[in-house]
Design a protein that fits this description.
The structure is a single chain. This protein is α+β, with helices and mostly antiparallel strands. The chain has a domain of 127 residues: Nucleoside Triphosphate Pyrophosphohydrolase. Helix content is 23%, strand content 36%. The protein is built from five helices and eleven strands; from the N terminus they run ββαββββαββββαααβ. It has a four-stranded mixed sheet, with helices on both faces. The longest helix has 13 residues. The chain starts with 12 loop residues before the first strand and ends with a strand.
């Protein structure tokens, strides 16, 4: 088992952008999420298996926004000086202690408020990968409260029947993956997946 460390910090520098992903500045993570939020780069990762399962995670109860909500396999933000490619692989190592081949699918802009505690205002890039089997992973407890490899059909039902248990970006992304990108996901090769420990 990996000895996990804290990997999210209020003062980590996020990349502010316009709607075309041009950099407009930098701001700390906490300041980028207060009030209506400042538009910044983000990414979401979905890991699938050959038997049509997807890895879901329940966000840590210590998260200021959407704590203990279920969401996609991994999501976070590129930091100042990082490319998307560097950021997605860093975060897989930090949260799940693994390496996996990822494919970029699309980018979209959204804003979602979490009561009066803050908001996500993100230009989010969505990545997918396929792994050989629903293997056991080593999650970082500072980021993830629980996890499971869930059949995709069960995810469809979860979103429909328990909408208050899932994050808003996950719902938006999942709906597009299941409609616009289903064939591309089915055609993904089973890439390597190795422990990052």
């Amino acid at each position: 088992m990996t000895k996990h460390k804290t990997v999210s910090f209020d003062n980590e520098p996020l990349i502010l952008v316009d709607g075309d992903d041009n950099v407009t500045g930098y701001e700390t993570k906490i300041n980028a999420h207060i009030g209506d939020g400042l538009l910044h780069r983000a990414f979401s990762i979905f890991l699938f298996t050959d038997d049509d399962r997807v890895l879901l995670q329940q966000r840590s109860g210590n998260k200021p926004l959407w704590p203990l909500y279920w969401s996609n396999s991994c999501c976070s933000h590129p930091r100042k000086g990082e490319t998307y490619e560097q950021a997605v692989h860093r975060r897989l190592r930090e949260e799940l202690a693994l390496e996996a081949e990822l494919v970029y699918l699309y980018r979209f802009e959204y804003r979602a408020e979490f009561g009066d505690l803050g908001a996500e205002n993100e230009l989010c890039s969505v990545y997918v990968g396929k792994v050989p089997a629903p293997v056991r992973i080593d999650v970082n407890p500072s980021e993830i409260a629980a996890w499971q490899w869930m059949p995709c059909a069960d995810v469809d039902r979860m979103i429909l029947e328990q909408p208050d248990s899932v994050t808003p970006w996950f719902v938006m992304e999942w709906q597009r993956l299941r409609t616009e990108f289903r064939e591309q996901i089915a055609g993904l090769g089973s890439g390597r997946m190795t422990s990052a420990a």
